[in-house]
Amino acid sequence: MSVRVPVWVPGFDEVMKDRPPSAAEVVLLAACRTDGLAWVGEGCPKDTSDPERAVRAGLIRFLLLGGDEAHRPHPKGVGIHGAWIEGALDFRGCETHLDLFLHKCLLPERPVFRDRRWAGCTFRAVGRRGCELQRVAVEGNVFLDRGFHATATVDLAGSAITGQLACDGGRFERPEGVALTAMGATVGASVFLRGKFHATGEVNLVRAAIKGQLACSGGRFERPGAWR
């Protein structure tokens, strides 16, 4: 018999570490009470030099795992536009019924979502170190599409997605290795690698079970022979 150990969730004060919320975090906390989308800036930050556009990864995790009486997440989930994420998003082994939406955000550190159960995710963000999504169970869609840009491996090996995996317009860069892998994944709808999809490394779909269509029209694959 398997035993499920509850995931430890630090309190709000511990997450903030006695440092006042940045302007971006103030907007995020206010959005939890309104429409769920924190509009921090117009475009993606080029670097991490502006502390007022920073959102702590721990705060995002805290909200997605339910928050507390004074800081409840919006029923839609957590949505952020135009911020940079301070620290690594680490959701290993977590469960949440909420969505995560990152649009025009900068992720300097590699986010880790493996072995997680969640509702859905949309990354239209810049991930300098790729993304770990191995064995995630998503009751919905995964969007790594227009605006998404990873410069290291995006790993969806063994994941189970009930909806679609959409990477239309996404940029996956790892010229000397694997840019995108969904090896052994199960996708309940379609996989889209269309439009301005651009991979400079290997795309690996070995043993992936795709119940819809695999559409690659207009996609650009720069390593001939690397497609599996």
Molecular structure report:
- The protein is mainly beta.
- The protein has two domains: 12-99, no CATH class; 130-223, no CATH class.
- It is 10% helix and 30% strand.
- The chain has three helices and 23 strands.
- It has helices at residues 12-16, 23-31, 57-64; strands at residues 37-39, 54-56, 77-81, 84-86, 99-107, 117-118, 120-127, 131-132, 137-138, 142-143, 149-150, 154-155, 160-161, 165-166, 171-172, 178-181, 186-187, 191-192, 198-199, 202-204, 209-210, 214-215, 220-221.
- Strands 1, 3, 5, 7, 10, 11, 14, 15, 18, 19, 22 and 23 form a twelve-stranded parallel β-sheet that branches.
- The longest helix has 9 residues, at 23-31.
- The chain starts with 11 loop residues before the first helix and ends in a 7-residue tail after the last strand.
- Residues 1-5 have low confidence and may be disordered.
- Form type: globular
> What is the alpha-carbon Rg in Å?
17 Å
The ordered H/E elements are HHEEHEEEEEEEEEEEEEEEEEEEEE
Q: What is the CA-CA span between the terminal residues?
A: 38 Å
User: Into how many domains do the coordinates divide?
Assistant: 2
Would you report the number of β strands?
A: 23
Oligomer: single chain
Strand portion, in percent?
Answer: 25-35%
The number of distinct helices, counting runs of at least 4 residues, comes to 3
Uncertain ranges = 1-5
Q: What is the SS-derived class?
A: mainly beta
